[in-house]
Amino acid sequence: MTSLPAAPPDDQHLWSRARRGDPAAFGELFTRHSTVVYNYCFRLTGSWKTAEDLTSVVFLEAWRKREDAAALAGFVPWLLGLAGRVARNSTRAVRRHRRLLAKLPPAVIAGGAADAAPPHDPADAAARADDERHMKQVLRVFRRLPKQEQEVLALCVWGERTYAEAAVALGIPVGTVRSRLARARAHMERLTEAAATKTAEPRPGSRPEGAHHT
User: Fold this and answer.
1) Keywords in UniProt for this one (predicted)?
2) DSSP 151-198
């Protein structure tokens, strides 16, 4: 009888190996989850290039902090929580990334953590530019939210995490995630409506459409 192929190791098993210094296990985690982190970093920054840099930083920080993160309830929520902290200070994070690269074992760099951007078709450049313009408009409103509301909205909406996963990433109770997310959505809606109204208002000194000088 033909035996079934072995199931691939889960994230917890790979992370346990990575914590012991196994670069191949860490490389597999990168392969599985780098696109999720990359897209999340884009939503936090509105720039694909910055998202590429920050994705590298997130995985390098994960490698650096691996011994301090023993019992993770969820690897991806932890990664996205790390991404949120990195994105809040992106300029310093990128400089730190360059310094860390010089200290990494070559096998970790070969595993992909130094080259984070998924391949993309150059023909998609116009669509990517449109994505950036749209996201920057959203971020102008998003960044007016209190920090705690930004965190839960980003994780639950942009990161597509459950309440429980967001609670793990932020180290807060599930009930707190629910209440903050409800406030964040209501706050975001009010700010978006106010921004739309302001955009629709005529500028001082401008003439209404169709008006003519006499």
Assistant:
1) Sigma factor, Transcription, Transcription regulation
2) HHHIIIIIS---HHHHHHHHTS-HHHHHHHHHHHHHHHHHHHHHHHHH
d(C-alpha 138, C-alpha 128), whole Å: 15
The pLDDT > 70 percentage for the chain reads 71
Q: Are 140 and 199 in contact (CB under 8 A)?
A: no
Comparing 17 with 72, the larger pLDDT belongs to: 17
63-72, 83-92, 99-108, range with the lowest pLDDT: 99-108
If phi > 0 it is left, if psi is from -120 to 50 it is alpha, else beta; for residue 160 that is left
Closest CA to 40 of 135, 126, 175, 162: 135
Residues ≥6 apart with Cβ < 8 Å to 57: 86, 93, 94, 96, 97
Pick the CATH number of 129-197 from 1.10.3210.10, 3.60.130.10, 1.10.599.10, 1.10.10.10: 1.10.10.10
Within 10 angstroms of residue 212's Cβ, the number of other Cβ atoms is 5
Q: Which residues contact 83 (CB under 8 A, 6 or more apart)?
A: 37, 40, 41, 44, 54, 55, 58
Please give the average per-residue pLDDT across 184-199, as a whole number.
85
